[in-house]
Design goal:
Blueprint (H helix, E strand, L loop, with lengths): L6 H15 L3 E8 L3 E6 L9 H8 L2 H8 L10 E5 L2 E7 L3 E7 L5 H16 L2
Length: 125
């Protein structure tokens, strides 16, 4: 599926994701400041995602490490976004990144945290 990146690299990205996520893996997309490429898409899914739109959002991650540097939380590792039907995880280095989408997986604590924080935040809008 990857057309503009080294096929071996594309396979390494996909393999790393499949090893950790297994059958819940939906897609893998590689991106830089000026390129975006679908590396993997599960066969039961349509190719309708707006990769350029997603890339625009996820490229903000290139600044994340710098902005979070020196916090008491430690080094920035990844961003997890929760959706109705699954998750998007973004991992970046200084100039490259990947986002991975998954089916709904057990992330009970994140879901409980979001459920607890949402009404508190709404009270203070």
């Amino acid at each position: 599926m990857a057309e503009n990146i080294d096929p071996t690299f594309a396979e390494e990205l996909t393999s790393a994701c499949r090893t950790v996520i297994g059958d819940e893996l939906r897609s893998v997309v590689y991106f830089t400041d000026d390129a975006v490429e679908q590396v993997y898409l599960r066969s039961d899914l349509d190719r309708t995602a707006d990769l350029l739109g997603f890339a625009e959002i996820e490229r903000t991650g290139f600044e994340t490490g710098e902005k979070y540097r020196g916090t008491e939380l430690g080094e920035y590792r990844a961003t997890v976004r929760m959706f109705e039907h699954g998750y998007l995880v973004r991992v970046v280095t200084e100039a490259t990144g990947a986002w991975v989408t998954t089916d709904g997986m057990s992330m009970t604590r994140f879901e409980e945290l979001a459920a607890a924080l949402k009404p508190v935040l709404r009270e203070h809008e």
